[in-house]
């Protein structure tokens, strides 16, 4: 028998912004699909109308667009197995719920939330299961006539899955191996609610994975407790042979200490936990995003890929193509991965160095404009090229390092340490001589300046560069002096030199 084509899915519930852990889950699915020449499906699991948040679906789509994670079919794309939004698949689920009911694998329960609450108070650790279902108000304890009467009279009900106790259920997990759980600890999960005519997550998830021919379910560890129930559902439907293989990914842990990474950790330590900025439609609160914080999408991808997996070598800088080639589900770790956000900043620095200046320039141009500077993109690009190797993690850090490219020092003063040290006795005279030399140049390129100034320095034994830096920058920062002067041009260079000579004497 030939193996079926690999088909994986990312199936978020639109309950808010996508958490960074969800991004990693989607990334691993994407890598797995690409590596196997398979297909990646984007499904929206919106059967819990109480938790629906407007804008969440659009946010998720935009996040993946930014990150370069592409789906082959699903919401917003289409495909042969649609619709891909679960709220549009009611009729399909109803059919499968009815099937379980008619086969006696599920039953109807009328217990009201108040009745259930009372029971929970009465019985410690109450669980709706094989031991208690006989004492509840459901189609197993009521007569068929009574059940029909209640339904016809409009009484709300749920459909519960009938879990047989005392059986070891095996979940075959690619990362965790054989995970065994006894069915006695499971409750008779609600699969469907008449109130909104919608299934719960469990039923919709299984039916869709089956109908959409999903071969591998790769998802966060938080879904592992649901997996035994899912195995039972596949069996109840007679789909065991085509059951997807599971892989439950390790949790993302707090950067400092134990426990699950939360938004609060991000707020406390100053890093985003969402891919894009999120504006909460209810509270108006704004949460920071990787994109708006100045991360390059390639850096975020590289960083996330290594949270829970590594290629087995020291190689850390991995492009999407590298990752597709090297990724291996079986080598994901079981143990949680510490969310080392400082490492994330390091990745961003590395990717800034690797990225074309033309790609980086627009981000710096925005910052220049915020500071009242308008110039051409060519000049922005040139500055980014001269300055990006100064160990910056974010493009915005360039501004204080290179404001002098775009505006002359406001004043010259020996209050500045670098100036005090380098503006000595002969400085004014040297700078006057240097200005004279430069004035004579018609070609103001780096090479042309270098030829003339280096020779003069050698002949006279002078070292004019630090005093010259005082003139052009006003302090001890900036790139190579010839590069800076060439960028400023002859007029601006000479102007700054004259002003410095006058101010400092
Ligand atoms: N809707 C679930 C979520 O929000 C999907 C879990 C799964 O992948 O089965 O993550």
Structure description:
This protein is α/β, with parallel strands linked by helices. Among the domains are: 89-249, Glutamyl-tRNA Synthetase, domain 3; 356-405; 408-505, Arc Repressor Mutant, subunit A (Orthogonal Bundle). The chain is 43% helix and 11% strand. It is built from 20 helices and 15 strands. The chain has helices at residues 20-35, 56-67, 90-102, 113-122, 144-152, 201-211, 227-237, 263-269, 297-305, 320-326, 341-354, 357-370, 377-387, 398-402, 417-422, 427-439, 446-460, 465-473, 481-488, 490-504; strands spanning 7-10, 39-42, 73-74, 106-109, 158-161, 168-173, 177-182, 190-193, 198-199, 216-220, 245-249, 252-253, 278-279, 286-287, 337-338. The strands form 6 sheets. Strands 4-5-8-9 form a 4-stranded antiparallel β-sheet. A 3-stranded parallel β-sheet has the order 1-2-3. A two-stranded antiparallel ribbon has the order 6-7. Helix 12 (357-370) crosses helix 13, helix 16 runs antiparallel to helix 20 (490-504) and helix 17 (446-460) packs across helix 19 (481-488). The N and C termini lie far apart (89 Å). Bound molecules: glutamic acid. Glutamic acid is lined by residues 11-13, 45, 205, 219, 223.
Structure summarized in a few sentences:
The chain is of the alpha/beta class and 505 residues long. It is built from 20 helices and 15 strands.
The termini sit apart by 89 Å
Number of helices: 20
| Name given to the CATH architecture of the domain at 89-249 | Alpha-Beta Complex
Please state the oligomeric state of the protein chains shown.
Answer: single chain
CATH class of the domain at 89-249: Alpha Beta
Number of strands: 15
Runs in which pLDDT lies below 50 for 5 or more consecutive residues are none
Q: Name the average pLDDT.
A: 96
- Rg estimate, integer Å: 32 Å
Major beta sheet, specifics?
4 strands, antiparallel
């Amino acid at each position: 028998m030939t193996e079926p084509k690999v088909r994986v899915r990312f199936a978020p519930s639109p309950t808010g912004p996508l958490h960074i852990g969800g991004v990693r889950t989607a990334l691993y699915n994407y890598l797995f699909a690409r590596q196997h020449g398979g297909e990646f499906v984007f499904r929206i699991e919106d059967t819990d109308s109480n938790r629906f948040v407007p804008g969440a679906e659009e946010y998720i789509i935009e996040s993946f667009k930014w990150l370069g994670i592409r789906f082959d079919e699903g919401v917003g794309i289409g495909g042969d197995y649609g619709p891909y939004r679960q709220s549009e698949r009611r009729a399909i689920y109803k059919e499968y719920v009815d099937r379980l009911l008619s086969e006696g694998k599920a039953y109807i329960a009328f217990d009201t939330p108040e009745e259930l609450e009372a029971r929970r108070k009465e019985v410690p650790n109450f669980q709706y299961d094989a031991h208690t279902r006989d004492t509840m108000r459901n189609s197993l304890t009521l007569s068929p006539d009574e059940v029909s009467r209640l339904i016809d009279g409009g009484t709300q009900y749920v459909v519960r899955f009938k879990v047989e106790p005392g059986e070891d259920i095996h979940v075959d997990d690619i990362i965790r191996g054989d995970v065994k759980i006894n069915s006695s600890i499971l409750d008779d999960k609600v699969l469907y609610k008449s109130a909104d005519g919608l299934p719960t997550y469990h039923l919709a998830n299984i039916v869709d994975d089956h109908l959409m021919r999903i071969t591998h379910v790769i998802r966060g560890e938080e879904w592992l407790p649901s997996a035994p129930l899912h195995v039972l559902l596949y069996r109840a439907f007679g789909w065991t042979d085509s059951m997807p293989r599971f892989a439950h990914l390790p949790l993302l842990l707090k950067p400092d200490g134990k426990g699950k990474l939360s938004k609060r950790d991000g707020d406390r330590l100053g890093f985003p936990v969402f891919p894009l900025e999120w504006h909460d439609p209810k509270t108006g609160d704004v949460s920071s995003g990787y994109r708006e914080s100045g991360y390059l999408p390639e850096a975020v991808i590289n960083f996330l890929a290594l949270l829970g997996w590594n290629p087995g070598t020291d190689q850390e800088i991995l492009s999407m193509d590298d990752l597709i080639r090297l990724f291996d589900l079986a080598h994901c770790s079981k143990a949680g991965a510490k969310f080392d956000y400082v490492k994330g900043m390091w990745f961003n620095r590395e990717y800034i160095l690797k990225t074309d200046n033309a790609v980086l320039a627009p981000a710096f141009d925005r910052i220049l404009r915020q500071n009242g500077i308008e110039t051409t993109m060519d000049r922005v690009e040139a500055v980014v090229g001269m300055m990006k190797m100064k160990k910056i993690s974010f493009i915005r850090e360039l501004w204080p390092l290179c404001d002098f490219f775009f505006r002359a020092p406001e004043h010259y003063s020996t209050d500045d340490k670098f100036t005090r040290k380098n503006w000595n006795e002969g400085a004014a005279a040297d700078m006057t001589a240097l200005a004279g030399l430069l004035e004579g140049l018609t070609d103001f390129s780096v090479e042309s300046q270098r030829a003339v100034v280096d020779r003069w320095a050698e002949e006279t034994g002078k070292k004019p560069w630090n005093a010259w830096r005082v003139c052009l920058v006003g302090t001890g920062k900036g790139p190579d002096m010839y590069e800076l002067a060439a960028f400023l041009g002859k007029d601006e260079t000479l102007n700054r030199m004259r002003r410095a000579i006058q101010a400092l004497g």
